[in-house]
Amino acid sequence: MTPYSSEHLLHVLHAHQQRFHYISDQAICEIATRLHLPRAQVEAVTEFYAFFHRSPRGRFDILFSNCTSCGNLTLMQQLCDRLNVCMDQTSSDGLISISQTSCIGMCDHGASALINGLTVTSLSEQIIEEMGNLIESETPVSAWPTSWFQIGNNIRKEGLLLTEALEPGAALKAIAGRSSDEILNEITASGLKGRGGAGFSTGLKWKLCRDAASDSRYVVCNADEGEPGTFKDRILLNSHADTLFEGMTVCGKVIGASQGYLYLRGEYRYMLDALLTTLQNRREAGLLGNNVLGSGFDFDIAVVVGAGAYICGEESALIESIEEKPGIPRIRPPFPVTSGLWGKPTVVNNVETLVAAAGIVLHGHHWFETSGTWQSKGSKLLSVSGDCARAGIYEYPFGVTVAQILEDAGAEDVQAVQIGGPAGRLIGAESFTNHIAFEDIATGGSFMIFDTSRDLLAVIGNFTHFFDHESCGFCTPCRVGTTLLKNGLDKVCSGHGTAHDIDELQRTAALVSRRSHCGLGMTAPNPIRDGLKVFPQLFEARLLHQEMEPEFNLDASLEEARSLTNRDDAEAHL
Amino acid sequence: MKQLKKREVFTVSESSPKVRVATTSLAGCFGCHMSFLDMDERIVGLLEHVEFSRSPINDIKHCEPCDIGLIEGALCNADNVHVLKEFRDNCKIIIAVGACAINGGVPAMRNHFTLKECLEEAFLDEIGVDNPHIPNDVEIPLLLNKVHPIHEVVKVDYYLPGCPPPADAFVKILTDLLEGREPSLPKEMLHYD
Ligand SMILES: Cc1cc2nc3c(=O)[nH]c(=O)nc-3n(C[C@H](O)[C@H](O)[C@H](O)COP(=O)(O)O)c2cc1C
Ligand code: SF4
Ligand code: SF4
Question: What is the pLDDT of residues A159-176, one digit of tens each?
């Protein structure tokens, strides 16, 4: 198994997209023939992932993040104006195309974008101006100022995981000679729960997988990190990759897997080479491959890179994606621990969970357990961004208050905090005394701060648009519901809403969260619901005081007919 | 089925002790009206409690103050909008009847095309068209850019789904309202396969 298979459908499509700027019908046929896949599968995958296109993109293809923390659409407009192109339209000479994309995980680096798949950060009006010149002169991206592509770690506060500089192989040596049960007990005793959002006990997950009857099993690390405002896995992948791979190897040893996969979000492709080098170094050091550390245990890790789909962070969608299919969540149960990758028992864990697991087997469960609260052991990496003086990574023991984090980050006049990303919770000042913990405010790590200068309805609107855009479209409540929520909220935000529209939003929100097939739909109405609960006055202030206002402008919707018939009489208006 | 708070609907007046119902077909095929009439002899019993205002059944041209308005069809032109508003202004309860009224249904299939494409296909490019021109007589209501379900323009109190809804569903929703109950359709009436 090659660590980065050039034959994986996602990788083939990526290479093709980069080279030819789109995937033509002919290319789909050729790729299908070459990879021995059904044509329909290649086509479905091409259409599912946002980074693959069926019509040509520009030779310079720029995607501006539209995240509230790492997005700045004014700069996008500036570049459009500078180069005289419209958003989403490839220029007629095929030089340039500019579009939006969901959060690219650069929230501590200011306005950011992807240029031909590479991340540029800290954009400013001046950089956009220079970028315009470089594009006009068709200077290849490889010759652009390297400083634009610098991505730092911005670690502001270190705790258990970040201070740890685990010697490659240390955790594996620590478990040498210990039985699977002993290691499992260590993990379980530490109280480690999943850091990816759902908070499932890691020890139990590993045990369920190990005990599921099968001839083979898999370990998958979820590095999809798509939740807007989250970038802590980026830091771990950048500076703790060895520990992460060590955690995966430990897991493989415990459950009896011989193959692991790291599913890296497409937005983090810039880290791919470094990750592959780390894997190679580990192989050379005998920490991966056949007969790991002479223990008779075989384990290797391959990387699969995604292509711009938030839903692929959902574990069963992620598995589908590794299997070269569109990232549509599976029906659960069966859960991945019994039927995951290629139907085999599979552990899917977040990056941070696996890094913590490596530390736990090395230092013992007490090392971990002494930090945190009774129900939330250990530490949590928070990605702090938004309106504050010091955006970056903060590692706290569980139980820290929101107020403490705000103070450390230098946030003033705070109006609201979105914790856990759009899928999480929106809280106001009355909740700043609450704690970050599974039993209080749980979070996958996103912590976005909004001060009083922000239009909070616009923020809620941004999140609601995000879900509408990222819904995979498989089930009706989410596919249709997220659009209804978006339209309803836009109506209210634009000052055309009435109390009736708020009722409808509430009703739709309840339906979408209750009836959706997966976690995306279940959480998609959260920003609106929390907004209505915590900041009802903001909605109230925008409402029209009448029973009902049409969803669209009646008179304007006769415009096309008026022009086709050249009519402008009284009856030609509404 | 939408759940609204129970409300006092039918105040029986001296002059008209019957519940007054109006019906109309906007951009629909009259299939919903036909299905309504499929209640057959049960309409006799219904007429003991109900009288009709504006409806294609009796050709009354304008909606008088009513208790219940049944709307078939989507909104596809300016006249549809006027009629719908007249109903909303005059009816205590508006019921969206059928797929077209609720979702846009069959007429909304034109939403995949621009209005220009639709009109050119019908009046200019289609084989066998003589005197090709897009009709522009002021008597003809202008078409909306897109076809819309009725709840996008007025508040709708209840929805009667189906294409068309079965006659039994009409009987059930009207009986519930006449007897002062919150209308509720059993699952069998909401199953279409
Ligand atoms: C829409 C959606 C997106 C998700 N995105 C991520 C993600 O980016 N990273 C992640 O670790 N978990 C994500 N999850 C949670 C995973 O499904 C899964 O619970 C997690 O990877 C399990 O790992 P853990 O037990 O270590 O937390 C997402 C879930 C949903 C429903
Ligand atoms: S809830 Fe949304 S994202 Fe999840 S399966 Fe349904 S459509 Fe797809
Ligand atoms: S819902 Fe069906 S039966 Fe009723 S008007 Fe529309 S097409 Fe005709």
Answer: 999 998 899 999 999 999
Strand ranges of the sheet holding A218-223, from the earlier edge strand across to the other edge? A300-305, A259-264, A218-223, A346-350
pLDDT of residue B11: 45
Of B142, B148, B154, the CB nearest to A561: B142
pLDDT band at A546 (very low <50, low <70, confident <90, very high): confident
Average pLDDT, stretch A39-47? 98
Q: Does A510 touch chain B (CB under 8 A)?
A: no
Query: Who among A500, A550, A560 is closest to B145 (CB)?
Result: A560
Whether A299 and A410 share a structural domain: no
Interface predicted TM-score (ipTM): 0.88
Strands A346-350 and A259-264: unpaired
Tell me the CA distances in angstroms from B152 to A409, A535, A547, B29, B156, one per residue in order. Answer: 45, 26, 13, 20, 9
- As for how many domains chain A has, the answer is 5
pLDDT of residue A547: 82
CATH of range B6-108+142-182; options 3.30.360.10, 3.90.550.10, 3.40.50.150, 3.40.50.700: 3.40.50.700
- Report the chain B residue with the minimal C-alpha distance to residue A547: B155
Domain shared by A358 and A384, yes or no: no
B142 contacts B33 by C-beta, under 8 angstroms = no
The whole-number average pLDDT for the span A530-543 is 97
Question: Residue B145 and residue A561: Cβ atoms within 8 Å?
Answer: yes
Q: How far is the CA of B167 from the centre of ligand 3 (A)?
A: 13
Q: Are strands B158-160 and B91-97 parallel, antiparallel or unpaired?
A: parallel
Q: Give the closest ligand to the alpha carbon of residue B99.
A: 3
Per-residue H/E/C for B29-52:
CCHHHHHHHCCCCHHHHHHCCEEE
Q: Are residues A447 and A460 in the same domain?
A: no
CB B148 within 8 A of CB B75: yes
Of A149, A176, A197, which closes a domain? A149
Is A321 in the same domain as A187?
A: yes
Contact of A476 with chain B, judged by CB distance below 8 Å, is answered with no
Domain extent, residue A516, equals 456-573
At A119, the amino acid letter reads T
Query: Which pTM does this prediction carry?
Result: 0.91
Ligand 1 centroid to Cα of residue A361, in Å, is 23
Using the beta-carbon criterion (under 8 Å), do A572 and B143 form an inter-chain contact? no
